[in-house]
Amino acid sequence: QVQLVESGGGLVQAGGSLRLSCAASGRTFISGYRAGWFRQAPGKERQFVAAISIGGERTSYADSVKGRFTISRDNAKNTIFLQMNSVKAEDTAVYSCAAEHAYFGSIGTAAADYNYWGRGTQVTVSS
Hints:
The chain is mainly β. The chain has strands spanning 3-7, 10-13, 18-25, 33-40, 47-52, 59-61, 69-74, 79-84, 93-101, 116-117, 121-126. Strands 2, 4, 5, 6, 9, 10 and 11 form a seven-stranded mixed sheet that branches. A four-stranded antiparallel sheet has the order 1-3-8-7, with no helix packed on it. The protein is globular. The termini are far apart.
């Protein structure tokens, strides 16, 4: 069982930066969990943002955030990160991290690829 807790959300001006963190407890990522970030804006469906493999050797991004967001992980600290730069008003959403046990190099870009989810952290971008 993995418990995920996000932090780092808040209010940021358009063009600014924010760094989200997702701390895991219960089991360590070292044992092999791929991870991802998803977001959901009011009235919209949940959307894939970024994903990372268990060792961090592979990453994937939604086209809407490519070049602006960076996903990373520190397995020694059981934490994954989402660095958000040049944020836009359309980035406003609740951001949730997700994790799933996987084999080396595996990456997941769909919500169905994950069984463990955090509750989310609100990101609001003011224009």
